[in-house]
Design goal:
Elements: E1 13-14, E2 24-32, H1 47-60, E3 64-73, H2 84-97, E4 101-104, H3 110-120, E5 123-126, H4 127-138, H5 142-158, H6 165-170, H7 182-218, E6 224-229, H8 235-243, E7 260-265, E8 271-276, H9 289-301, E9 304-310, H10 316-330, E10 339-344, H11 353-362, E11 371-372, H12 381-394, E12 397-404, H13 408-417, E13 419-425, E14 430-437, H14 439-448
Parallel strand pairs: 2-3, 2-4, 4-5, 6-8, 6-9, 9-10, 10-11
Antiparallel strand pairs: 1-3, 7-8, 12-14, 13-14
Helix pairs in contact: 1-4, 4-5, 5-7, 5-9
The structure holds guanosine-5'-triphosphate (GTP).
Guanosine-5'-triphosphate is lined by residues 229, 231-237, 249, 251, 253-256, 279, 344-345, 347-348, 374-376.
Subunit structure: Monomer. Associates with the 50S ribosomal subunit.
Domain Hflx-type G: 223-396
InterPro entries: G_HFLX_dom (IPR030394), GTP-bd (IPR006073), GTP-bd_M (IPR032305), GTPase_HflX (IPR016496), GTPase_HflX_N (IPR025121), GTPase_HflX_N_sf (IPR042108), HflX_C (IPR045498), P-loop_NTPase (IPR027417)
Length: 451
């Protein structure tokens, strides 16, 4: 593990005046000096990078981050997670900074959270709580919203302490939580239980309809190209660059919790559907995996997957490893021709960096060569479009079909289910069409419309 930025005795780094409107917050990343093999802290990622990410997440929910820093630990304390001395030191900082909230970027037990709240006399949000807030703000589809609310309720149920009502009121969420007395907690637990039941029923309903939507989407004749990648890798910016669509692309994490679809035409006329997906994040709390996966199922149906990477980020390798691990778990073959690595933000590399990457890329075999782009400046975009077109066509079969001109139904079917490349009306009253189809459809179509 790299040397921590903050020494044990040093105060946290003051932050420049933040733009946040949700309250004054301190962000800390506790990390073990010697990571234990079963410790909850992620040793693959540098603590500094984790701190950057945590501050980014806090800013994404409009917190005014007044101070932030690493908290090195020699061991994890059951009662407060971090040691007594450090807890006291932080209490002083909370007071002097008039902070209303401390984000502790690790998974805290309900008891640890409660004890820290008492010691600091302010709200404490752990990593799960922080990501839940972000998911809550970014969820756009019905299913996304329900999944997040369900995860939130399950998490709350395990820790019936007053939640951070300020944020939750804003979202119109769980304002009923808060009573400190036993009876109040029991009542809250019952209300939560009922709400969980209701949401589970609604989710069932939504899933059934989503299945229908997907079935109708599957009939769409165009190949689907899905963008995946780590949070802040530049997916939305690339999506916009490729589609010139107006999709939210702010310097915010998780600007896209739910998939967005657009259809575009590639340089040689191939039409595709471009699908933007949720950003990946390190150490995703297990309670959130279902909500996250629901949005990623799109990827499985994609003909081509663009794995967008921010190659100017210090942790780009660790981020890519995270994404690949999840793709593999979902059943995507990483060696498959349908995966293209897009190395984004080449404009942000330090001097000589882009040349170095170009050399690395040129040594890779052509079929697994990443494409270097800048979604911001447009550099490399033409080459990317060409590569997408090559891969899309490679995965599709081209057929010649013939049918009677009077077969209106057949013609209609072909236009709905295949990509019609060319059409010729014959003198004998028949029609000849050149169509492109997914390989698994080719045989059926040949049988029905023998050329
Ligand atoms: N310098 C540079 N910045 C970029 C580039 N592409 C995107 N960005 C910036 O990176 C930030 C994140 O971009 P987004 O497109 O929102 O990232 P995302 O992957 O969609 O993020 P999530 O929605 O959180 O998953 C924004 O500030 C973009 O302006 C690029 O090629 N070069």
């Amino acid at each position: 593990m790299t040397e921590p930025k903050t020494k044990e005795s040093a105060p946290l780094q003051p932050q420049p005046e933040g733009k946040g409107a949700s309250g004054r917050a301190i962000v800390i990343v506790p990390h073990l000096r010697r990571p234990s093999k079963d410790g909850p802290l992620d040793a693959a990622r540098s603590p500094e990078a984790q701190l950057d990410e945590a501050v980014g997440l806090a800013l994404a929910i409009d917190l005014d981050v007044v101070s932030s820093g690493l908290v090195p630990l020699s061991e994890i304390r059951p009662a407060t997670f971090i040691g007594t001395g450090k807890v006291e030191e932080l209490a002083g900082i909370v007071r002097s900074e008039e902070a209303e909230l401390v984000v502790v970027d690790t998974a805290l037990s309900p008891v640890q959270q409660r004890n820290l709240e008492r010691a600091w006399n302010c709200k404490v949000l752990d990593r799960t709580g922080l990501i839940l807030e972000i998911f809550g703000r970014r969820a756009r589809t019905k299913e996304g919203t329900l999944q997040v609310e369900l995860a939130h309720l399950n998490w709350q149920k395990s820790r019936l302490v007053r939640s951070w009502t300020h944020l939750e009121r804003q979202r119109g969420g769980f304002g009923f939580l808060g009573g400190p007395g036993e009876t109040q907690i029991e009542a809250d637990r019952r209300v939560i239980g009922e709400r969980i039941h209701k949401i589970e029923r609604e989710l069932e309903q939504v899933r059934r309809t989503r299945g229908l939507h997907r079935a109708s989407r599957k009939r769409v004749p165009y190949p689907i190209v899905a963008l995946v990648g780590y949070t802040n890798a530049g997916k939305s910016t690339l999506f916009n660059r490729l589609t010139r669509a107006k999709v939210l692309a702010a310097d915010m994490l998780f600007a896209t919790l739910d998939p967005t679809l657009r259809s575009i035409e590639l340089p040689h006329g191939t039409k595709i559907i471009l699908s933007d997906t949720v950003g990946f994040i390190s150490d995703l709390p297990t309670t959130l995996i279902a909500a996250f996966r629901a949005t990623l199922e799109e990827v499985l149906e994609a003909d081509v997957i663009l794995h967008v990477r921010d190659v100017s980020h210090g942790d780009t390798e660790a981020q890519a490893a995270d994404v690949k691990a999840i793709l593999t778990e979902l059943g995507v073959d990483l060696m498959s021709r349908r995966l293209i690595e897009v190395w984004n933000k080449v404009d942000a590399l330090e001097k000589g960096g882009a040349e170095r990457l170009r050399e690395i890329v040129s040594r890779r075999p052509a079929e697994s060569r990443p494409v270097l782009v800048s979604a911001l400046t447009g550099e490399g975009i033409e080459a990317l479009l060409d590569e997408i077109e090559t891969r899309v066509s490679a995965g599709r079969a081209e057929l010649e079909v013939a049918l009677d001109a009077a077969d209106g139904e057949g013609l209609h079917w072909l236009y709905e289910h295949t990509e019609v490349l060319d059409r010729a009306d014959q003198e004998d009253g028949s029609l000849r069409l050149r169509v492109r189809v997914p390989p698994d459809r080719a045989d059926g179509i040949r049988r029905r419309f023998s050329a």
